Amino acid sequence: MNKWKFVAILLIGILIGTIMGGVLFSQVHAGSYDSVYYLKRIYFSIINLESYLSSIEGDVSDIEDYVYWIYGEM
């Protein structure tokens, strides 16, 4: 089961890296007058990411429960 836990953590890490990389890379071209706007945008992107991660965490927990149930039925 540790193998599947590792795979789940790896996939979540890749997802986080992809989202954060896309958000931060798109903000590189901001001028100094746009800094407050882009900082707010990054902040709200991180807040949205946090809600997505909690949703993913719940889904992973559900999948683990199903796997344990199926494993118990075998």
Number of E-type strands = 0
SSE string, helices as H and strands as E: HH
Give the helix proportion (percent range).
over 70%
Q: Please, how many domains?
A: 1
Mean pLDDT: 76
Largest sheet: none
Strand content: under 5%
Rg estimate, integer Å: 18 Å
Ends: how far apart?
A: 15 Å
Which structural class matches the secondary elements?
Answer: mainly alpha
Number of helices: 2
Question: Can you tell me about this structure?
Answer:
With 74 residues, this protein is an all-alpha fold. The chain has one domain (2-73). It is 86% helix and 0% strand. The chain has two helices and no strands. The protein has helices spanning 2-26, 35-73. Helix 1 packs antiparallel against helix 2 (35-73). The longest helix has 39 residues, at 35-73. The two termini are 15 Å apart. The relative contact order is 0.10. The model has no long low-confidence stretch (mean pLDDT 76).
